[in-house]
């Protein structure tokens, strides 16, 4: 894997201080993380720009970040071993690598994703993770979240060429992927998970929170100091509901969040509110589903239902609609509502005009 070039992330101070659409780098550092709202990109790497025909996004991760306001990126990882017939973008040694794929079977060697990409091999994860690493280093005040959907740890076998991989080998591969792309270096180290950090706590070179959906991965001592079990800190609203019909039950998806001994939900760090999955079948309606008015309606419904601000507004095709506009507005409203203020020098440094 290629090491992240420091030259590629060089940027001026004025660029760092610029208020980006959907961004949080301009918000007061004393704001607590669980009060922050972010645009969340669903299956960020499954985009048309990356060669996907059946896609969840249209534009690159950089464009999702810069133009669509995305700060949370959910990326599914699979093993892929090129077949002897493969001749596109794969090395000649035919060794397994970590790929971006989207399918429910981790033993499938990305067969469904190859079809979704027009009979083309999946992309190497290091390519897209490097994009995230560069963005994190270039915009150190912007808090980002990476959610790894892991089809690696429990899916080694002959079908994808990893039959000789031990659990520790898998952990090593994940660790190497994150280190070589600069994400491990930018990962937030949570010294005391009982304390909800302030934004300023993440603005000292640790502006990426990394989650995994496999608890055993997060518990591994080699990476447990910078990768956390996502469902311990995140609760998800019902993502199966349509854009117009809401679930009337006060229900959080089973197992997604932290429960006390009586089985009651403990307030999660993040409440994950997901717009209905769109993909191709809903594409004509994405501009409506992701519109400012629909997102606002859904946000306030969920806030009233769960008595908590939704933190992550996730959707397909982020370049459609205006989720970022609503996120900008709700973050400013939250700052005013909670009277969150920093010292005047800090505020002026983040709002000063670009020369």
Plain-language structure description:
- With 355 residues, the protein is α/β, with parallel strands linked by helices.
- The chain contains twelve helices and eleven strands.
- The strands form two sheets. Strands 1, 2, 3, 4, 5, 6, 7, 10 and 11 form a nine-stranded mixed beta sheet that branches. Strands 8-9 form a two-stranded antiparallel ribbon.
Q: Cα distance, first to last residue?
A: 38 Å
Annotation, overall tally of beta strands: 11
Secondary-structure element sequence? HEHEEHHEHHEHEHEEEEHHEHH
The whole-number mean of residue pLDDT values reads: 82
The helical percent reads 25-40%
Overall, the morphology is globular
Poorly predicted parts: 1-17, 241-258, 344-355
Total of helices: 12
Give me the oligomer status.
single chain
| Secondary-structure-derived class | alpha/beta
- Cα Rg: 20 Å
Question: Nutshell version of this structure?
Answer:
With 355 residues, this protein is of the alpha/beta class. 28% of the residues lie in helices and 14% in strands. The strands form two sheets. Strands 1, 2, 3, 4, 5, 6, 7, 10 and 11 form a nine-stranded mixed beta sheet that branches. The chain has a two-stranded antiparallel sheet with strand order 8-9.
């Amino acid at each position: 894997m290629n090491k992240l070039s420091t030259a590629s992330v060089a940027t001026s101070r004025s660029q760092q201080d610029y208020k980006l659409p959907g961004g949080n780098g301009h918000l007061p550092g004393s704001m607590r993380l669980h009060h922050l709202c972010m645009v969340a990109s669903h299956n960020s790497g499954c985009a048309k720009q990356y060669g996907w025909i059946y896609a969840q996004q249209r534009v690159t991760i950089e464009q999702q970040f810069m133009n669509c306001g995305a700060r949370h990126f959910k990326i599914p990882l699979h093993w892929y071993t090129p077949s002897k017939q493969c001749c596109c973008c794969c090395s000649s040694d035919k060794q397994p690598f970590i790929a971006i794929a989207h399918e429910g079977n981790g033993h499938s060697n990305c067969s469904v994703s190859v079809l979704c990409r027009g009979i083309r091999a999946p992309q190497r994860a290091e390519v897209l993770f490097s994009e995230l690493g560069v963005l994190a280093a270039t915009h150190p005040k912007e808090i980002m979240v990476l959610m790894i959907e892991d089809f690696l740890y429990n899916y080694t076998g002959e079908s994808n060429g990893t039959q000789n991989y031990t659990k520790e080998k898998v952990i090593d591969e994940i660790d190497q992927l994150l280190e070589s792309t600069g994400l491990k270096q930018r990962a937030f180290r949570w010294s005391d998970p009982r304390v909800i950090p302030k934004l300023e706590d993440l603005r000292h070179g640790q502006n990426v929170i990394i989650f995994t959906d496999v608890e055993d991965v997060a518990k591994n001592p080699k990476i447990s100091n910078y990768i956390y079990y996502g469902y311990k800190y995140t609760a998800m609203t019902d993502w199966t509901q349509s854009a117009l019909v809401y679930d009337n039950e006060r229900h959080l998806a089973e197992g997604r969040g932290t429960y006390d001994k009586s089985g009651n939900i403990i307030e999660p760090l993040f409440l994950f509110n997901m717009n209905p999955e769109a993909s191709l079948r809903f594409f004509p309606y994405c501009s409506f589903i992701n519109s400012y008015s629909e997102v606002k309606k859904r946000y306030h419904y969920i806030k009233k239902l769960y008595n908590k601000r939704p933190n992550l507004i996730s959707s397909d095709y982020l370049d459609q609609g205006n989720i970022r506009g609503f996120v900008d507005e709700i973050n400013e409203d939250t700052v005013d509502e909670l009277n969150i203020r920093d010292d005047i020098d800090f505020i002026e440094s983040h709002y000063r005009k670009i020369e």
